[in-house]
Amino acid sequence: MKKLIRLFAGGLALCLAALASAQPYPNRPIKMVVPFPPGGGFDGIARPFAERLSAALGQPVVVDNRPGAGGNIGAESVARSTADGYTLLFANDFLGTNPNLYKELKYDPVKDFAPISLIGSTQMAIAVNPDRVKATDSRSLRAESEGRPLQYGTPGVGTSPHLFGELYGTNTGTKVQHVPYRGTGPAITDAIGGQIDMVLVTVPALVQHIKTGKLRGITVIGGDRRSPLLPDVKTLAENGVGATHDLWYGLFAPAGTPPDVLKRLRETTASVLAQQDLVERLRQIGYEVTPSTPEVLADRVKSDLVKWKQVVERAKITLE
């Protein structure tokens, strides 16, 4: 009798599993891996997007913060997950930088992921300590650096702000010296305190400090227009230097995810990013919504791999 019950239970479980798999996607919660700590810049755009995606799909989209190794731990976990659309990766340009920084990666940023869409972007900005640096724009900053290299703080070696700083120095002829910190907050604190000359981080992190005069905004990096959060700070183009690079965010699934699932995710993402209240909500905290085709996102990763390879090699940056 017990054996019969076990056989019945096993058969029922198989039937339920088959029924679930036959239901339209999605029929259970989706996990969206954010490979950085909660509360940071990633969460600022990832969580509002996940909230709207969940409503549009009719299933919970759970944000799973998996920080470590500059995004590699989270990315690897998605690359190794089942390609069924129930585990997604919310990534940024670390997919183009990390292969050039780390000696060994356990995932391939091109082969292991199916791009879905760009989600948005944010700008970087350079802000200086007004007592240590007299410059008010990129030209005068370059001139001031002739006397001594200017120290710029970032959230750490190999982070996007670090590489942006190296690229900025090369493109403008400004002599800079990188000072890594364990996060954006400590870098800003030391810039305000005068321990370093300036800081290079995302615009949202700098707004209140520039508005109160604790720091002076020099330039916004990335994009072809001023940040609505810092309307008085010129872009690189206005400073006579061409724009360099904005910090993008995109959505990926594991390679091999069924085409119909990718199509559903792509179409739903496009509809979510067309919601004007979401666009305005993100713009108010420093993000521009930038939906795209999968091909555009794939090309962005590939071009970043080439672009940042040159920067990393020139600056001789390596990470274990």
Structure description:
The protein is built from eleven helices and eleven strands. The protein has 320 residues and is an alpha/beta fold. It has two domains: 24-120 and 248-315, 3-Layer(aba) Sandwich (D-Maltodextrin-Binding Protein, domain 2), CATH 3.40.190; 124-221, D-Maltodextrin-Binding Protein, domain 2. A six-stranded mixed β-sheet has the order 2-1-3-10-4-11, with helices on both faces. Strands 7-6-8-5-9 form a five-stranded mixed β-sheet, with helices on both faces. Helix 6 links the parallel strand 6 (150-154) and strand 7. Helix 2 packs across helix 9 (259-273) and helix 4 packs parallel to helix 11 (294-315).
Radius of gyration: 22 Å
Give the topology string: H per helix, E per strand: HEHEHEHEEHEHEHEHEEHHEH
Q: If strands are numbered along the chain, what order do they take across the biggest sheet?
A: 2-1-3-10-4-11
Counting DSSP H or I runs of 4 or more residues, the number of helices is 11
CATH structural architecture of the largest domain: 3-Layer(aba) Sandwich
Instruction: Give the CATH topology of the largest domain.
Output: D-Maltodextrin-Binding Protein, domain 2
User: Could you estimate the helical fraction of the residues in percent?
Assistant: 40-55%
Number of domains: 2
Total beta strands: 11
* Beta-strand residue fraction: 15-25%
What structural class is derived from the secondary structure elements? Answer: alpha/beta
Structure in a nutshell:
The protein has 320 residues and is α/β, with parallel strands linked by helices.
